[in-house]
Fold this protein.
Amino acid sequence: MKETPESPLKTPRTKLRRMPSRGSHERAAVEAILDEALVCHAGLIDDGLPVVVPTLHARVGATLYLHGSAASRALRESGGAEICLTATLLDGLVLARAALHHSANYRSAIVFGRASLVAEEGEKLAALEALVEKIVPGRWADARRPTERELRATAVLRLPLEEASAKVREGGPADEQEDMDLPVWAGVVPMRTVAAPPEPDEQLAPGVEVPEYVDALVGEFA
Amino acid sequence: MKETPESPLKTPRTKLRRMPSRGSHERAAVEAILDEALVCHAGLIDDGLPVVVPTLHARVGATLYLHGSAASRALRESGGAEICLTATLLDGLVLARAALHHSANYRSAIVFGRASLVAEEGEKLAALEALVEKIVPGRWADARRPTERELRATAVLRLPLEEASAKVREGGPADEQEDMDLPVWAGVVPMRTVAAPPEPDEQLAPGVEVPEYVDALVGEFA
């Protein structure tokens, strides 16, 4: 991936050691992956051992927010912790002629940094809005807003987007030249995450229709 | 999730501290999630900091195998390292009446253990077969097998499936009773990972047709 001379997300820790040609430290590349991915995996150290938990994330400018419940045990104890947040989009299965060249097409973003609990109520509310809008754009305006009590009881984590890299594998299989004539099918099976028709809650109030922003999701995420 | 009296995957480390009712230590539950997930996230400690990398995995009985390239830097140096392997399947977006109850339906498996490099050639070959068959069942029989030289140059990691847990969120939104009559649509948008029609490699040998096991993927992963 092309990189501009100044790549402020690059640090010793985010230097791409393996296949650097597939990587980038461009903020736009990293942000696009984080914005498209619905789920991320946050890794932290707990009692000296690595722990990786899936969680929802949302970006507001140069800050990432996470629902605090999942990853916050170690954080609550320490008031902040080094985490690694990784989001991956699977784009395709790569079938090569040679077994060893089978692979996957993907886009992943890795963010390193110190996560901390959001204390200020305004920031917390903005983070929750971003998290709800991330799940379904347009949803925040309809949903019942948090009460002050709910807001106080909710943990949200902040992770600055300052140290990060993106990695992308795309295109067809990378077979050896001498394997090209083998009578073995080779190519890519593209993979997509799609939404199926919505299933309304059984106790929906009478007359409530499926909102447009929900219908718009179906078949999306292509 | 129901649990039989003996759950050998349960250890102090895999005790479910948050929402234990959503969790299980049943081997069958953990294995089903690992087998269905095409990508996992492996977390390890590198220079005292957590690192999470996406990678492909495959299971052979009670052992998980990973392509060694991605996570192996720290491993190569140490001859083995504690890792946490997490695989997550996103099943749906959960839209609640209240903003704070928005969530996702998912199934995730978390495996803890010491990963080590596979040295023995027979085990390495069996692991590679499992990894190729995981990408596309039926593929190993067609693909060109690794040479001895290729095999020696390939790093494969072994992780015993001995300490693990599964976590599942399913069903509709968990709104408060007093919110039930709000005129807000609530329900679940099911999410699926599907395969699109295969894209043949440009340099395919003449007369090579798309194999049945590739055609069988399209629209699958439902």
